[in-house]
Write a structure and sequence with these properties.
Elements: E1 2-6, H1 11-22, E2 27-32, H2 44-47, E3 70-73, H3 77-89, E4 93-96, H4 103-112, E5 118-120, H5 126-142, E6 147-154, H6 164-176, H7 181-184, E7 185-187, E8 201-207, E9 213-221, E10 224-232, H8 236-248, E11 256-257, H9 259-262
Parallel strand pairs: 1-2, 1-3, 3-4, 4-5, 5-11, 6-8, 7-8
Antiparallel strand pairs: 6-9, 9-10
Helix pairs in contact: 1-8, 3-4, 5-6
The structure holds NADPH dihydro-nicotinamide-adenine-dinucleotide phosphate and the ligand O=C(O)C1=N[C@H](C(=O)O)C[C@H](O)C1.
Length: 266
């Protein structure tokens, strides 16, 4: 599998190049940077601190259209949609890790997946995807008597809130409790808010320093509290998951998949 990475000099882009270098059965086919970047033409391996990989970074997907089979995209919602449309048009698979897409943008991504396969997941780590299963089980067993609160912490550069992972955790818990997250979610309380309603699911966001990504889901009732916690300490955990998804896509039919499909957790 020849894999292309767009946003190759970003926090995830560099980790993705490292993960591709150390994975079996995949190779780096192309690395794409923002047009105008001073790194265009530089060796992608050197951009990632991995030494030469003999792949020169380019400024657009069109410039490397014959050099890859699957694109890995951890960028911005707007760019991801452009990239997904390009992949659909050119029969390329795509792995999307970008978060912060609104409902309309998610619908457009689903539209692109009717032409070629897409893996789209807000968190590519094995640990978070297992945690989603644990959350569903906990919510089913604990039911409506336990208040659910989701706390997430990330580095100060992160631009979307709550994190995509926190929102997915909320969806999983809401589904297991027969609720609609759109109706029961409460974000960042402030002021004279009154007592908590029984069925709300609260989200709290911390942005500070270099935190890679931490999620904690509380189930609290009179007399006890359970916390299910995941802490990422390296972006390589997301990058390895994305590369695993890219390999998994080989030979897959067009359609929308997620990491639960890739990891066989459904
Ligand atoms: N699903 C998962 O497991 C994970 C998801 N994420 C998500 O991934 C996304 C990216 O995160 P992160 O790597 O931290 O962010 P960065 O800002 O570090 O990386 C984004 C990259 O995209 C590049 N970019 C922007 N516009 C273009 C363009 N037109 N062409 C090519 N490249 C472009 C940026 O370039 P420049 O710097 O020059 O602007 C930057 O290098 C976020 O949505 C984040 O939430 C993050 C970690 C894990
Ligand atoms: O922006 C990040 O860094 C991360 N974003 C993802 C999210 O929004 O859930 C996943 C991970 O926690 C890191």
């Amino acid at each position: 599998m020849r894999v292309a990475v767009i946003g190759a000099s970003g926090r995830m882009g560099k980790n993705l190049i490292s993960a591709i270098k150390s994975a079996e059965g995949v190779s780096l086919g192309a690395a794409i940077l923002k047009p105008g970047s001073s790194l265009i033409g530089a060796d992608a391996g050197e951009i990632a601190g991995e030494g030469k990989l003999n792949v020169a970074a380019v400024a657009s997907l069109q410039d490397c259209v014959n050099d890859f089979d699957v694109l890995i995209d951890f960028t911005t919602p707007e760019l991801t949609l452009e990239n997904a449309a390009f992949c659909a048009q050119h029969n390329k698979a795509i792995v999307v890790g970008t978060t912060g897409l609104n409902d309309d943008e998610k619908a457009k991504l689903t539209e692109a997946s009717s032409a070629s396969p897409v893996v789209f997941a807000p968190n590519m780590s094995v640990g978070v995807n297992l945690t989603l299963k644990l959350l569903a089980t906990a919510a089913e067993i604990l039911g409506d008597d336990y208040d659910v609160e989701i706390v997430e912490a990330h580095h100060k550069h992160k631009v979307d809130s709550p994190s995509g992972t926190a929102l997915r955790m909320g969806e999983v818990v809401a589904d297991a409790l027969g609720r609609d997250l759109k109706e029961c979610a409460v974000y960042g309380r402030e002021g004279q808010i009154g007592p908590r309603t029984q069925k709300e699911i609260g989200f709290e966001t911390i942005r500070a320093g270099d935190v890679v990504g931490e999620h904690s889901v509380w189930f609290a009732t009179e007399g006890e509290r359970i916390e299910i916690v995941h802490k990422a300490s390296s972006r390589m955990t997301f990058a390895k998951g994305a590369v695993r998804a890219a390999s998994w896509l080989e030979g897959k039919a067009a359609g929308m998949y997620d990491m639960q499909d890739v990891l066989n957790l459904k």
